[in-house]
Design goal:
The structure holds 2 protein chains of 2 kinds. Helices cover 44% and strands 11% of the residues of chain A. Chain A is α/β, with parallel strands linked by helices. In chain A, the strands form 2 sheets. Chain A has a 6-stranded parallel sheet, with helices on both faces. A two-stranded antiparallel sheet of chain A has the order 5-6. Chain A is globular and about 50 Å long. Chain A starts with a helix and ends in a 17-residue tail after the last helix. Chain B is of the alpha/beta class. Chain B has a 7-stranded mixed sheet, with helices on both faces. In chain B, strands 17-19-18-21-22 form a 5-stranded mixed sheet, with helices on both faces. In chain B, α11 links the parallel β21 and β22. Classes of the chains: A alpha/beta, B alpha/beta. At the A-B interface, β2, α6 and α7 of A face α4, α5 and α6 of B.
Chain lengths: 332, 455
């Protein structure tokens, strides 16, 4: 295989599929860029963890899920919500803490849910989503609905004790769950090599006989294929699998992170050589599935969606003061 | 010399047991480790092994004997050559060490009189009552709810094959199968999270903690994942789950196994916190908790599991969450408590009446939401307040009650309220120190006299 061909992703796809994946990733990228801007303008406060650079992981995984399969993740969650089909407006308005947000302004960046789109959060405690995701899988198995739960977590969370408790029970009970480790190489400011005795995170299930695959998480088609395999494994009743997605976040851990723990060059190099969106863009051009102009117009379309979401998020009213006391308990 | 083999205490709370079967007969030769007999305790059937070698002498307690006190000589082991008829006359009464043991368990067998059990939910002369232990009442509650709703299931350590560490889940596996009665590994953090996920996925889990001491490992999921999610999701994400198990002091199990967490959970909005005293409330409140759409922390008490109470024979006994109960009417002082301390208050009230102090005993039953109205109404009548709890004083339930009462009924108080609680130290193991540390009826009596300005 010559160098040129390698650049053109050899994995099978179609024009429609690739365009769709491209749009989904671009929406997340533009959405997050806008969120970053709004944060700088003081419209978004508190914690805001951007997903820029990691788009292929969630978009590729989502492409292999079927309706009813659940998704759950940690605090870097905007991309997952958009990939699940949640509205940009509602997500952005939650970031600005407005009544039009998915949690009516009461959750914030890290706490959004959509039962309709089978998105189960949005969890701020590192690793908590892993047993909860296994619990969603338990409910699938109990009801016999044939669905699979996908629990996303980072390289940092992969060192949490509760993750291994969940691995053990998920395998012991053959729960239909896929554990997706988004290895972006830094747990806040601590690199994997500085925090993990075993840095090959796909091997982390070996004590539990859980098979793991290492995946180029910057390649959306490779992600799609690995997810397809793992999800089928889980859906067939064979229990959990681990996917270690090797990925990279371009931005800091959160908005307030100066990212002194890595060099500017490292970021620039990854951006220029491994960017998941550019990779797809190149293939669309090479395959002649899209012209530059067509891609530009897609970008314009997406920017409009994001601008509309930002406008909504800034004009939606703050939650009514009476909301302070609602949603604490349900009526018995 | 013959060796006395005594009825052993096979659990920290065992006082007596049934000698269900003799495996040996008089005259048999046994060596150390041989099984002599089977004994049924309040928790399980256990085998008693010989501690020495010798010949089985006179069997003092025939098989099938119930209520054999711990420490009673059940058989003598003779040295080789010793004759059965060399045997000294066996004593019928328990030996001293077991009396010490019982001292720590004083008045565990309080069965309240019908007068104490006023304001029965089910009143009227037509309703018959049955005696039942708190343990079986809890079990029946779960079984009834599991029959009623197929989405209800139980998970926890030893709940299935072992039949429950405290036998609370006895025979549930047999009736409902392993899909709905799930043994977990000893990983509280993980299985509490799995329970929360299952609840979010539409099921109704009952998560049993072998004790709430171990729920410390899982408290993150109870609070961060279960209690807060409804609010954080703007009302979208429900988490109908019951976290249950014994809470508070057991007996001689040391500081790490005796902690009362009531005030910890009571502090958290988004949770309901229930702590019943008698069998009727245990059953009725647990059924209500299982049907509740919110996360409920259900605090049981190991030392109440074996207690027998009367329970009305009605279908579908439900006790509403959030309502306190006046267990004894009185005019001079209000005693407020929950869980096992209710029994201590009733004991104190029965003694104080002889000294001319007529106590009203309020059983909180639910700690969150707290029924302060019932407490305040009582204080407005008696003008005096004593709060009793098993946990530590600082930031305790009594502190909360006193705060509410002084705010709402300050002008009605004829004396500063008094509080009774555990001494401000980790619970010691030594019998005397443990007894000194835990609050009892004598502390309540002292406090009640103080607010009545009597010595």
């Amino acid at each position: 295989m010559n160098k040129k061909n390698k650049k053109i992703n050899p994995l099978k796809t179609t024009k429609d599929e690739l365009l769709s994946l491209y749009k989904d990733m671009l929406l997340i990228r533009r959405f997050e860029e806008k969120a970053g801007q709004l944060y700088g303008m003081g419209q978004i406060a508190g914690f805001c963890h951007l997903y820029i650079g990691q788009e292929a992981v969630v978009v590729g995984t989502r492409a292999s899920m079927i309706d009813g399969d659940q998704m759950i993740t940690g605090y870097r969650d905007h991309g997952h919500m958009l990939a699940c089909g949640m509205e940009s407006r509602g997500v952005m308005a939650e970031l600005t803490g407005r009544a039009g947000g998915y949690s009516r302004g009461k959750g914030g960046s890290m706490h959004m849910f959509s039962t309709e789109k089978h998105f189960y959060g949005g969890h701020g405690i590192v690793g908590a989503q892993v047993p909860i995701g296994a619990g969603l899988a338990l409910s699938n198995k109990y009801k016999g609905n044939g669905n699979v739960s996908l629990a996303f977590f980072g390289d940092g969370a992969s060192n949490q004790g509760q993750v291994y408790e969940a691995f053990n029970m998920a395998k012991l009970w053959s729960l239909p769950v896929v554990f997706v480790i988004e290895n972006n190489q830094y747990a806040m400011g601590t690199s994997v090599i500085r925090s993990s005795a075993e840095t090959e995170l796909h091997k982390r299930g070996s004590s539990f006989e859980i098979k793991g695959i290492q995946v180029d998480g910057m390649n959306v088609l490779e992600v799609r294929d690995a997810a397809k395999k793992a999800i089928k494994h889980a859906r067939d009743g064979k229990g959990p699998m681990i996917l270690e997605m090797k990925t990279y976040r371009y931005r800091g851990h959160s908005m307030s992170d100066p990212a002194k723990y890595r060099t500017r060059d490292e970021v620039t190099k990854t951006r220029s050589e491994r960017d998941p969106i550019d990779m797809v863009k190149n293939r669309l051009i090479v395959e002649e599935w899209a012209t530059d102009d067509a891609l530009k117009s897609i970008d314009k379309e997406i920017k409009l969606i994001v601008a509309d979401a930002a406008e909504f998020a800034q004009t939606s009213p703050e939650p009514d003061a009476s909301e302070l006391y609602t949603d604490v308990l349900l009526d018995a | 010399m013959a060796i006395d083999i005594k009825m052993p205490a096979l659990s920290p709370t065992m006082e007596e047991g049934t000698l269900s079967k003799w495996v040996v007969k008089e005259g048999d030769t046994v060596t150390s480790g041989d099984i002599l007999a089977e004994i049924e305790t309040d928790k399980a059937t256990m085998e008693v092994e010989s501690i020495d070698e010798g010949v089985v002498g006179k069997i003092a307690i025939p098989e099938g004997t119930e209520n054999v006190k711990v420490g009673t000589v059940i058989v003598q082991l003779l040295e080789t050559g010793e004759k059965v008829n060399d045997l000294e006359k066996l004593q019928d009464k328990p030996i001293n060490s077991s009396e010490n043991y019982e001292q720590n368990q004083t008045a565990k067998k309080t069965i309240p009189s019908r007068d104490d059990l006023d304001e029965k939910r089910v009143s009227g002369s037509n309703v018959t009552h049955t005696e039942i232990t708190v343990r079986d009442a809890l079990r029946d509650a779960m079984a009834e709810e599991m029959r009623r709703d197929e989405n209800v299931f139980i998970m926890g350590e030893e709940v299935a094959e072992y039949q429950g560490a405290y036998k609370v889940t006895r025979e549930l596996l047999q009736e409902f199968g392993e899909k709905r009665v799930i043994d977990t590994p000893i990983t509280e953090y993980g299985f509490a999270g799995i329970g929360v996920g299952a609840a979010m996925g539409g099921l109704k889990p009952i998560v049993e903690f072998m004790t709430f001491n171990f729920a410390m490992q899982a408290i993150d999921h109870i609070i961060n994942s279960a209690a807060k999610t409804l609010y954080m999701s703007g009302g979208q994400m429900r988490c109908p789950i019951v976290f249950r198990g014994p809470n508070g002091a057991a007996s001689r199990v040391g500081a790490q196994h005796s902690h009362d967490y009531t005030s910890w959970y009571a502090n958290v909005p988004g949770l309901k916190v229930v702590a019943p005293y008698d069998a009727e409330d245990a059953k009725g409140l647990l059924k209500a908790a299982i049907r509740d759409p919110n996360p409920v922390v259900f605090l049981e008490h190991e030392l109440l599991y074996g207690e027998i109470f009367q329970i009305p024979d009605v279908d579908d006994l439900i006790v509403p969450i959030g309502k306190a109960k006046v267990r004894r009417k009185g005019s001079d002082v209000t005693l407020v408590a929950h869980s096992r301390m209710v029994g201590r208050c009733l004991e104190a009230a029965n003694l104080l009446i002889n000294e001319g102090i007529d106590c009203e005993v309020v059983d909180l039953r639910t700690i969150r939401p707290l029924d302060s109205k019932t407490v305040i109404e009582s204080v407005k009548k008696t003008n005096r307040l004593v709060c009793a709890e098993e946990g530590w004083g600082q930031s305790g339930i009594g502190a909360e009650i006193v705060s509410r009462v002084t705010k709402e009924a300050f002008d009605y108080l004829d004396a500063p309220p008094e509080r009774v609680y555990q001494v401000d130290v980790p619970l010691p193991y030594a019998a005397n120190l443990e007894a000194l540390s835990l609050p009892g009826s004598s502390d309540i009596i002292k406090a009640a006299k103080k607010v009545c300005y009597k010595n």
